Amino acid sequence: MPKKMYCWRCQMDVPMLTDDEWELVAPHLKNVSEEIRTYRAKTGQSLADAKKFGYGDRALEIYEKITGVKETNPNVLWHHRVSAFGPPCQACGKPLRTPRAKFCAACGAER
Questions:
Q1: Contact assessment for residue 20 and residue 27, using Cβ atoms and an 8 Å cutoff
Q2: CA dihedral angle for residue 74, residue 76, residue 77, residue 78, rounded to 10 degrees
Q3: What are the Cα distances from residue 105, in Å, to 4, 49, 75, 78?
Q4: Residues 6+ apart with CB under 8 A from 40
Q5: What is the pLDDT of residue 64?
Q6: Quick one: pLDDT at residue 31?
Q7: How far is CA 89 from CA 99, 100, 106, in A?
Q8: Is the Cα dihedral 97, 99, 102, 107 positive or negative?
Q9: Residue-wise pLDDT tens digits, 3-31
Q10: 82, 19 in Cβ contact below 8 A?
């Protein structure tokens, strides 16, 4: 079950995926870059034009099915995973940016 946590990139609480849930989404995200590269090589289109063709939509659908939250940008899913963050800061309660973080990016408290 997803866990609602603060995302320092989005600067708000969002549903974060567990590792098991991430395994359902990740393959669809990993294919996006390759699909866009292939499309651009074949057509000569810009990156902006290539992004209009729905690449990453399957990952977004799965994320919505798991979390109940409709996301529109597949790139944010890369950092909406519980294990990518550290424990909660003892001073402010927001998760540390990484499991190995030495201080809290939100409030500056040392770990």
A1: no
A2: 110
A3: 19, 35, 21, 19
A4: 46, 47, 50
A5: 97
A6: 80
A7: 11, 12, 9
A8: positive
A9: 999 998 899 999 999 999 999 999 999 88
A10: yes
